[in-house]
Amino acid sequence: MKILSVVHGPDVRAELFQPVVARGGHALDEWSFSWGRRPPRPLESYDAYMVFGGAMHPDQDAQHTWLPEEVAWLEQLLADRRPVLGVCLGVELLARAAGAQVRRLDEAEIGWIDIDLNDAGAEDPVLGSLPRRFPGLVWHHYTYDVPDGAVELARTDRTTQAFRLGDSCWGVQFHPEVTGVQLEHWIADFEDPPPDPDGLRAETPHKIGAWNELGRTLCSAFLETSNKLLLATR
Length: 234
Prior knowledge:
Blueprint: E1 2-6, H1 17-23, E2 27-31, E3 48-51, H2 67-80, E4 84-87, H3 89-97, E5 102-117, H4 119-123, E6 133-144, E7 150-155, E8 160-165, E9 169-172, H5 180-187, H6 197-233
Parallel strand pairs: 1-2, 1-3, 3-4, 4-9
Antiparallel strand pairs: 5-6, 5-7, 7-8, 8-9
């Protein structure tokens, strides 16, 4: 398959997912609506899409004038039932494209926090590859309503963490793609510091290895499911 990675900053790229895509024999291109140049190939020519996070927020159209174009593109992906996985900002933009409300949290949700799959999540072909409960890395200032017609798949105590819309769209609020190096860059970012940087640094070495295994598992499940969907439509 030909996969497009849509990114929104230098420290929020495919990271852990890129070698998983390569080992599966797929090709991965990277591109951003914010770059102001054409993608490597026509957007509609890709087989599946991954939309990652960013320091911006899903309602900041005035500050990031390319956001409405990206949302309109996501609306078309949903209409065409193209395989897509949104992560953090990516899931928030998918929710917006599907007509759901996105809004700022009273307090950001940042750190290693337990995430629970519900029954629908446990049975899902992508999220069901994960345990029913796991400590996940979350880092978000916004949340979203589950879109009409979508199925919620996972939650923390405070927020929804995943949904599936139709049979080809998945979004996760947590960060299955994050590596230890990537996370250290986030912690060191003075523009968006975590509430307890020392605590997060101390906790991460004990959890990042198992978390990365789950991230690889989730990415593989998305790729396998996407490939089945494509074969079924040919």
